[in-house]
Amino acid sequence: MRNSPKFLLFLLLFSFLKITAQGDLMVMPKRVIFDGNDRSKEVNIANTGTDTATYAISFIQYKMAEDGNFIQIEEPEEGQRFTSDYLRYYPRRVSLAPNEAQTIRLQLSKTGEMTEGEYRSHLYFRAVEKQTALAKEDLQKEEDGISINIRTVFGISIPVIVRRGSTAAEVELKNLQLKVEESPLLSLDIFRSGNQSVYGNFTVTYKAKGQPEVVIGKVNGISVYTPNEKRHFIFPLQTVENIDFTKGSIEVHYEDPKAKASATATLELN
Amino acid sequence: MKQLKNLLLIFVLLLISFSGNVVKAQELPPIPVDVQVSTEQFLNFGAFTVGDAGGTVNVDHTGTRTWTGDVTLLNLGGPVTPALFDVYVNPGTLVTISHPASFELLGDNGNKIYLEVNSYSTGQNFISTSAAEVPNSIYIGGTLQLGNSQANPPGKYSGTITITFNQQ
Q: What's the complex ipTM?
């Protein structure tokens, strides 16, 4: 028996119609590589928003799943080494007025302790939320209710890779498959070998007898990090007139110009 | 006279072909290699009530709100919205979205409500198709896991969700 009516919880979620407490953030470049004798590098961040904002800068460790998703880790995977143990960086917290920019300096240290191969960590920039007077808005709380405030902040991560000694990588493309439903989707596996990550671009070309070749897909910046040996990748192709996906062939080319690693694979459509 | 005309024609043609070469040899301006993100809208579940048995409230990336369990959706309070981020990158660039599996919203009574971020307008890996100065609008939705009235008694619950845009 219940002597109280059905327990009702009022969940009032407050809307934030205008967001001015968060900065917009631009980071340049998108990746940092220490090669050869490089000792220091710079990364620029800029507040592209309309309000002063604070950004926290830290290192974060990721492993990449086979589907390319980033999974945060604390300890390195087997065969993985973090760069963050060998890098000094400053500043670690920056307040920027609108359109103001700041240089973050990264400096390599303890290089004597490093051995041949590749090290990787990710530099992480996070807009720090302002401690605004949320309590005032919370006054709308019902007697028997719950109020919920969800604040959304974003971060941007860029890889910082250090290569020591002689490093090289090779790639191979396998298991090409084309699915033509609403739009054509190409799936394939990139196989990587060697002691270096790859970061390359895909170009997909359609070829058929009596027709000029047509580029029907381009994706930039697909990486396979060490120690991973395989990455599964799916991407949409452009639908171009006069392309019949039941004949001819599709040539897929992957190229990492810096690692001098490239691979080509062909899918016959007949 | 005709010969002279022909010579002149050849000379002009040569000039044109040379000028063509010069144009081809010109370098393209460098492509900016950067990434830019801005928050345009917060994730908002609107208003609803929860009974004894608990349940879930889901707002997907299109802003559609659904529920399971002992939940009644109300049309009070603010509008129901997915989170919206604008991401600017060069066309054809791959960006990956990552975040913890679930977020804790902590109540002033010490209890917790869990929020799972699970709906993306672009998928967790997306390829920018717009020009560098045109934003890729990324809508993100999620699900609130609401316990029964003992697990989630009345009170103030608040939390922060952090979404990371990974560059490869």
A: 0.82
